[in-house]
């Protein structure tokens, strides 16, 4: 099979779907790689590094398989034709996705978001690899926006208390945020609606905030809360949040707007100079005062809602993503030829353009 690596066209998207390091293992499996000139530049990878790894520089859009990071734009969908295969983020739960168009164009498309969260598929799990980047970077952002130290400092000029950090929503990004905040010397607390998360929170040295709500849903995700649960949660969080210097929110429910966890009253109750980093901006935000994509100051609290944080660390984000893409691709290969076996749950679930008999 021939795989094309395209130059991403979305503003600010600095990641690339395959890095040179992963190419030798693909070549060994009979895969040729053609890379669009400049595809790696956002991640500081020159064309020459791809050539040195055994890829060719050329037109990726004519390849049998196209590997991408961001969902395709209209112009990109127009470049694809019948029989081609596309692998990448396709935002299958987003109402404005391109999946219908890809289907009518006869493109076979695999959405990394739809890979099941099972142990065998962990190596392909791009949501997780990129969420790790986002969780890490969210803490660095919080630390740099903060008017206070994270670690406890004992100096000749006095002692500074450690920052208290609350992470709301402890999936992959939240867990990485807790671990990173701890490494910086913060005192960490985690909260989630899935009770099974409590042990994971404690395993990274954080306290577990228990509000007595169990909303474990399907496939390891959370379900949306009932109105009564929402009211109870917002009230309890309003009381809890007051005591924290930094709040990082990552709560998501598949296919739904981000749950509202931090209301305006909760923000007003925080100490001046506190920081909220809201990673749920793409689906509306977890904080009522969040302005997606902006950093604003409300009630003397800084509220940052960065979008696409993984693209701000393009080197490692691309490296991890490449491993995910290569593993998914390998699962579709038989003797170097593309032959996806849809009795495999990972391929059946992630292929979003297939007609499935009811
Ligand atoms: P996610 O991005 O969908 O959501 C982030 C977190 O927000 C989740 O922990 C969710 O429970 C929480 N949340 C949702 N609504 C909330 C609310 N109202 N209040 C508080 N928290 C709320 O989650 P994710 O990072 O994609 O992880 C989802 C699950 O998948 C986790 O259990 C994770 O451990 C699991 N997972 C499994 C595998 C695997 O086994 N292959 C790989 C990755 C992740």
UniProtKB/TrEMBL annotation:
EC code: 7.1.1.1
GO MF, one annotated term: oxidoreductase activity
UniProt-listed CDD domains: Rubrum_tdh
Record-annotated Alanine dehydrogenase/pyridine nucleotide transhydrogenase NAD(H)-binding domain positions: 143-305
Catalytic function, reaction form: NAD(+) + NADPH + H(+)(in) = NADH + NADP(+) + H(+)(out)
Keywords: NAD, NADP, Nucleotide-binding, Oxidoreductase, Translocase
Classification via SMART domains: AlaDh_PNT_C (SM01002), AlaDh_PNT_N (SM01003)
Residue stretches making up the Alanine dehydrogenase/pyridine nucleotide transhydrogenase N-terminal domain: 4-134
Domain of life the protein comes from: Bacteria
Known role: The transhydrogenation between NADH and NADP is coupled to respiration and ATP hydrolysis and functions as a proton pump across the membrane.
NCBIfam families linked: PRK09424.1
UniProt name for this protein: proton-translocating NAD(P)(+) transhydrogenase
Native source organism of the sequence: Nocardia iowensis
């Amino acid at each position: 099979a021939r795989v094309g690596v395209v130059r991403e066209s979305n503003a600010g998207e600095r990641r690339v779907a395959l890095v040179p390091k992963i190419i030798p293992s693909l070549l060994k499996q009979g895969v040729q790689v053609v890379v669009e000139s400049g595809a790696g530049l956002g991640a500081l990878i020159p064309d020459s590094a791809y050539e040195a790894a055994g890829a060719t520089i050329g037109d990726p859009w004519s390849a049998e398989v196209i590997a991408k990071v961001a969902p395709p734009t209209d112009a990109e969908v127009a470049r694809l034709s019948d029989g081609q295969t596309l692998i990448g983020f396709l935002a299958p739960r987003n109402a404005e996705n391109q999946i219908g168009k890809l289907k009518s164009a006869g493109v076979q498309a695999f959405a990394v978001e739809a890979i099941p969260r099972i142990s065998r598929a962990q190596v392909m799990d791009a949501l997780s690899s990129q969420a790790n980047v986002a969780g890490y970077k969210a803490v660095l952002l919080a630390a740099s926006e903060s008017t206070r130290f994270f670690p406890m400092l004992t100096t000749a000029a006095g002692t500074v208390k450690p920052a208290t950090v609350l992470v709301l929503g402890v999936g992959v990004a939240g867990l990485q945020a807790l671990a990173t905040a701890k490494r910086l010397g913060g005192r960490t607390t985690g909260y989630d609606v899935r009770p099974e998360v409590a042990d994971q929170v404690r395993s990274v040295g954080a306290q577990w905030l228990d509000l007595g709500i169990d909303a474990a849903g399907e496939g390891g995700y959370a379900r949306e809360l009932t109105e009564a649960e929402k009211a109870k949660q917002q009230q309890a969080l309003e009381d809890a949040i007051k005591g924290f210097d930094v709040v990082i929110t990552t709560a998501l429910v598949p296919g739904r707007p981000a749950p509202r966890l931090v209301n305006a009253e909760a923000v007003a109750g925080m100490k001046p100079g506190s920081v909220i980093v809201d990673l749920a901006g793409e689906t509306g935000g977890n904080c009522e005062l969040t302005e997606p994509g902006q950093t604003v100051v409300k009630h003397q609290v800084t509220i940052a809602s960065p979008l696409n944080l993984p693209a701000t660390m393009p080197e490692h984000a691309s490296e991890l993503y490449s491993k995910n893409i290569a593993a998914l691709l390998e699962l579709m290969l038989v003797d170097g030829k593309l032959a996806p076996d849809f009795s495999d749950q990972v391929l059946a679930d992630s292929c979003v353009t297939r007609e499935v008999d009811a």
